Amino acid sequence: WLERYAARAREHGCSLLSDAQTGFRIDRKRGEAVDNDALEALSNAVREWVAESSKERAMPLSLGIYTEGGIFRRIIPRNSTLPTRKSITFSTSVDNQPNIAFKVFQGEREMAADNKLVGQFDVTAIPPAPRGLPKIEVSFDVDASGTLTVSADPRWMGTKQCKTMSVNAGPPGAEVESILQEAERMRATDGKKRDLVQAKNSAAAFCHQVERQLSELKGKATAAGVGELEGMVKDLRALLASDAADAREIDGKRKALEEASWKVSQ
């Protein structure tokens, strides 16, 4: 841009010079004829370019990752000023999990698959440990040009791991507006999907917790109490595997299991 404007300035007997206040200015060359109309148009174009380039840029769409069950977890929300950085601590979901795959999406829908896949970042070489024990800080950096760098803190793996991807960081246009309209139109449907997945995730995690608790309770709690919990866990897992389950039913059975678990452990 600058070289183009400088060349146009020279064509009209002017020079494009740096200026402490505006950044750039047009200067007439002594002894040369100047086309005043062209000079004014060129000066206006330079001022517009300077004003546009100095504007703060913002993310036109949210940036996030695929989480358990397919939910889209927003990391960098829409309209975040660029450049920006966000760090989140993640952990493993199963015992001795060696890797964590981060699928990065951009969009405004509640389920990741309904948004645009930007890329994938794999955290590897995680030392064996019980689920939930490794605490891995992952940072998401987006610069003003739209380059995303995802990096993992090296404390658990020994070496820093990172990957760069390109994301949409330009001004909102017709495509972005269409995406926003679609997200608004599907808001209610997407919300129900998200609520069901969250209910299933919460119930599955609590079933796992009770199963570990049962191994510790045997010999300490009554056989009837242990048997009741085992039956309730089995029923809840069967419900989770059913396509007919809804979020309210799952939450109800989970809460009943929580109450029974608390009573047996007393």
TrEMBL record:
Alphabetized Gene3D superfamilies for the sequence: 1.20.1270.10, Substrate Binding Domain Of DNAk, Chain A, domain 1
InterPro entries: HSP70_C_sf, HSP70_peptide-bd_sf, Hsp_70_fam
Domain of life: Eukaryota
An example Gene Ontology molecular-function term: ATP-dependent protein folding chaperone
Keyword terms, alphabetized: ATP-binding, Nucleotide-binding
Cited SUPFAM superfamilies: Heat shock protein 70kD (HSP70), C-terminal subdomain, Heat shock protein 70kD (HSP70), peptide-binding domain
Name of the featured protein: Heat shock protein 70
Organism this protein belongs to: Alexandrium catenella
